[in-house]
Records
---
Amino acid sequence: MKVSVVKETAPGERRVALVPEAVVKLRTAGLEVLVESGAGDGAWLTDDSYAEAGASVVSRAEALSADVVLMVGKPDAAAVAAFRPGQVVIGLLSPLTDPDLTRSLAEAGVTALSMDMIPRTLPRAQPMDALSSQANIAGYKAAIIAAAEFGRFFPLLITAAGTARPAKVLVLGTGVAGLQAIGTARRLGALVSAYDVRPETKTEAESVGATFIELTGVGAASGAGGYARALTDDERLAQQQELAGHIARHDVVITTAQVPGRRPPLLVTEDALKSMAPGSVIVDMGASALGGNVAGSVPGKNVVTENGVTIIGAAGLPSSMPAAASAMYARNVSALLLHLVSDGALALDSEDELQAAVTITRDGAIVQPSLSDAGPSPAGPEEGVARVPGAAR
Ligand code: NAD
């Protein structure tokens, strides 16, 4: 059975779905691996390194015709047009935010498996959890870019030229990315506080070195599957107002808050921004075209407010660390692929809970029930915009 890796086509995307170590693993399992020439360029992985690992380096057309086609992101329109019925396509296909792609994959007759639909709480699916692996990288990089943009030190420094006090960093949202941001900011020497609307994250945040902030005006908002639920309007207002006081006391704020199926909640309002000292830095990991966690953030851009606060609209953070992100993604996607293979051939089983969750199209139809209500909505802030948790990162 031929498994291929194609070169990513999304602008700025530098990751690749398999690294040479993963090629060796798949070949040991009896699979033939094809790699599109140049697929690893963005992550400094040469065609030769794939060939040495036992892959055949091939043209794009040949890679697109393999039995199983692996990618990190989504296939472009030309790739979808090249697919033939019965092929298997695996990637972060964002089916909840891109229903058109899902429909076109169904029309192409391919079996599409989306890495962002992995059931994350299923223990055997954990090695396949690409959302967590990529969120870890994003959280780390968010702390690094905050430190790089901040015009002062993160650690306490005592020198002959004076003493620098440690930076005060606030992390809002302590899921996978937030916990990694806390740990990284702590390792850089900052004093870190953290807040999440799920109180059960308190011990996790404390275990990586943060002081957990508890708001008096907002209760627990834990939702299904370990995620947060959306807040009511009253809760949201109370949260924004109470958070503003904490935000004003910090030099750096890193926001990671997400609610599945919703726009990212607005946590840092314009008033909160006005209360921050000049030179403060905010990294908004929720920044998106629909709005982010911070008023006025723009994805992929730095915005400086009138009072001198820099808001970094963090976009594509995992792709900015392509070697690490590709190595982790390769482990995730190989684990899924090996789960689907028996004796060197695909053995798909729609009764398997894990496979049923990740399979979005098969035999010309959309087969994942949760996709029936997917699609953009004209509703107001934080309302009804389908999102795969973590996919935007
Ligand atoms: P996420 O990206 O959906 O959200 C990030 C964080 O934002 C979450 O902690 C959420 O509670 C928080 N948040 C949402 N709205 C908020 C608001 N208004 N104010 C403050 N914070 C808000 O989450 P994620 O990091 O992808 O995962 C969240 C959780 O899912 C994990 O912490 C874990 O409990 C669970 N999870 C479990 C497994 C597993 O069991 N193997 C794997 C991955 C994740």
---
Amino acid sequence: MSTKIIFDTDIGWMNDDCMAAIFALKSPDIEVLGITPVMGNFDLNYEMACALRLLELLGREDVPVCRGFDRPLLHERSPYADKVWGKWAMLEDVKDIPPGLPRLQPDPRHAAVFLAETVQAQPGEIIIVAVGPLTNVAVALRMYPEMARQVKEIVIMGGAIGRLPRGQGNITPAAEFNFWVDPEAARIVLHSGANITLMPLNVCRRSYFARSLYDRIVDPGSDHPEVADLFRQYIGPRFDDPELDRREPVLFYGVFDHACLAYVIRPEIFDFVSMCVEVSIQRGIDYGTSHGYIKGGYVSGEDALPIDSNIEPIKVAYDMDFDALVELYVSALTGR
Ligand code: RIB
Ligand code: CA
């Protein structure tokens, strides 16, 4: 039986969110009930166009795409954000996207309403896979707090846990991008009491996109030639970069979010630790950083902190069998 998910994402054209969306849409183990874009990697207009066009190209016009938030709850656009990555508040008219603009129209429901109503209609059945800033999910939980009990699980790509291996930030020295874009939203979700699994940078950094993986996806024997075409057209040229190691060309960017989907299909390929995770909402260098700790009543010097915290521990993935993920990915994308 396939697992029902809603895919909450800052999708761009063939970025890792987009490749993860293809993974979900093609996997026989996953049923995508809807896609809810949220600003993050790109501004929301661009993301909406990418999501709708992807569905057209995959022949999946049946999947609703609901427009989410076009900016974080409190975090304002800044010269730093514009310079390093964040284009969330640009909200420009989209004149074109690489495969051309979609004809398909968005579903009229707001993403937060769609998330909550869909979960409420099938309590205990739906996993929210959130691979962008958590604004849509946070607002849904604030509007409909009962959703925290009704959702089967929220699987989040976000955060970087300094106490675990590979825990440095990727947008500031210690903060991960999705949490840093909307730290207040991340905090609301982590405090919600929902059943949460976190895929922080620690585990996602075990991923890479090798030329050998690309070759398998574009194999002429693939049962999904439309997917092979997308990869040939938009990923293939990235391997022409003269900076890449010619012996084993590898793309390090763009393969983080698919870990959440591999988890939905085969959770046993991941290693977990149970931790309380807090997100700093103090403005300054700590803004958006995440801190994981084992709840305890005393200071051990190691794990326990003397924090009178009311949050419950969540499952934090810190490592995985990456070869197993690759097999799941290839099998979904090629049908073989
Ligand atoms: O920090 C990694 C996250 O931000 C991923 O979701 C990826 O899409 C990037 O934009
Ligand atoms: Ca993302």
